[in-house]
Amino acid sequence: MCEVPYCKKIGAHQFPKNAEVKTMWLKAIRRQNFKPKKNSRLCRNHFLETDYQKTSIYTGNEHQHRYLKKTAVPSVFAWTTKAISQEGQAREERLLARNIKKALFEQAHTSAPISRPEDLNFAEEFCT
């Protein structure tokens, strides 16, 4: 089974032998006091497509199977990916619109006063 908390998939990737990369894996999965054993594994759901080698470094031929790069670190977890609901998406859009209005308001009140008629014509064209 996958060693990531709350993941019940079958693990495919063993923990790396390289101590530095193994430490990064342990930090990424957020399990306190966990020491990986020989059969400890992570499933493929926790890795990006870019974490896999597509071609052999020896022959240059495309792999038939997916091989994890030796430097790959798991980065896809329930706590790193957020699904935005429709309400959440609407809220983000409202916040963005509010911030744009606020910035335009501040810009209008801090700009230098219009003293030339040419500047007034430009401002009218810009605002319409």
Automatic annotation (TrEMBL):
Molecular function via GO: sequence-specific DNA binding; zinc ion binding
Keywords carried by this UniProt record: Cell cycle, Coiled coil, DNA-binding, Metal-binding, Nucleus, Transcription, Transcription regulation, Zinc, Zinc-finger
A Pfam family per the record: THAP
Superkingdom, natural source: Eukaryota
InterPro entries: THAP1/10, THAP_Znf, THAP_Znf_sf
GO CC annotation: nucleoplasm
Keyword Metal-binding: yes
Name listed for the protein in its UniProt record: THAP-type domain-containing protein
